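Quick check before the chapter quiz. The format below is the same one you will see on the exam, so make sure you can read both the input and the output lines.
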Amino acid sequence: MIKSQAMNALLKKAKAAALRGGFDLKLNRELGALEQDCRSQGLSLDTFRNFLAKLKDRPEVEYTFNVIGPSGSFFIVEAETDNKKAFENTMRKYFNKVGGFRFATEASAVQSWFEQKGVVTVKADLKGKPVPLEQMEEIGIELDCEDVVLVEDGGRMFELLCQPGKLSEVESSLTSKGFAVEAAELQFRPLHPVRIEGDDASKVEKLYELLQEDESIRQIFDNIQPGA
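Here is the expected output.
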């Protein structure tokens, strides 16, 4: 993923709040509270405010782009833009600059290599006390989750994976148990991760660097083995 899960979730909530109650932070209490959440979590206020300013000036639409890369790599890119054609041209410029990437002519050529899962991310503590992985796995079984993963990149979190149709139910159950839910969203998970090495790995890294600078990008999913 491009942006942190916390920021991505916050921007989604901000978009919904702004469309419901307007863009004035003083009049829209829900939006103002989200700005405070952004500040308290140590997230970028500039990113939050720039997102709202851009959304107000040019309402954007969500699009999904399917990309084929080198060495059997595939990418699903989620973006928000008010001009799909212009964004596609920008992506092609990135592809030409790096080399080895192209849009898939059929979505199934890429998406058949992934499965969609509901992913709920929660802080790995309860009432101020750390929750061991074994306890969280028991909760995952209780909620009919498929897997529970401990993530320690940028803070200790648990990811609970479930079927897409159970996402809201799992989120509500965890909230009722007292867990702080950081994000609850649908994600694409690779069915058969591939290993990328050498020049092709460098190309993937360069493409990610370009995409990280593009404010239209919301998330990227790939089928590359972690650490490859």
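If your answer matched, good. The helical segments are 5-21, 29-40, 45-57, 84-98, 108-111, 133-142, 167-176, 198-212.
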